Amino acid sequence: MLVAFSVSPATQDQTGSVHDAVAAAVQVVRDSGLPNSTDSMFTTIEGSWDECMAVVKQACEVVGRFGPRVSLVLKADIRPGYSGEITGKVERLEAVLNRGAPPNA
Fold first, then answer.
1. What are the sequence ranges of the domains in the chain?
2. Which helix (H) or strand (E) holds 32?
3. From the CB of residue 29, how many other CB atoms can be counted at a distance below 10 Å?
4. Helices H, strands E: what count in the chain?
5. CATH of domain 2-99
């Protein structure tokens, strides 16, 4: 399964920044050993249901240290029997886009 999630404290410092809390959550993800990707809005992980949910829970717990309230947004693609989809889905999309490109593009 793929799980894309965003977690942050629901309160922030006086500058409005939550980057320290988000960095702590991303470190949890990277330490998990699961395939992962982080962009400006979400972190995506790939693994079994139990593996992914354990990482999301731990990331929420770490962020909870930064304030009394945590905000979590989560989207999952549950497709048993498939792996490598964290990159495979994007590769298939790029292949389709490249087929439609004009010559010499």
1. 2-99
2. helix 19-32
3. 21
4. 3, 4
5. 3.30.70.930
**H or E segment to which residue 49 belongs:** helix 49-64
The closest alpha carbon to 24, from 47, 72, 58, 52, belongs to: 58
- pLDDT tens, position by position, 6-62: 999 987 667 778 999 999 999 999 999 999 999 999 999 999 999 999 999 999 999
Identify the bridge partners of residue 70 per DSSP, sorted by sequence position: 9
Contact assessment for residue 74 and residue 84, using Cβ atoms and an 8 Å cutoff: no
Dist. CA 105–CA 101, nearest whole Å: 6
Please tell me the distance from the alpha carbon of residue 44 to that of residue 62, in angstroms, as a whole number.
17
pTM, two decimals, is 0.87
- Assign residue 76 a region (left: φ > 0; alpha: ψ between -120 and 50; beta: otherwise): beta
Cβ(5)–Cβ(53) below 8 Å: no
For 49-60, the pLDDT digits (tens) are 999 999 999 999
Report yes or no: 6 and 56 within 8 Å, Cβ to Cβ: no
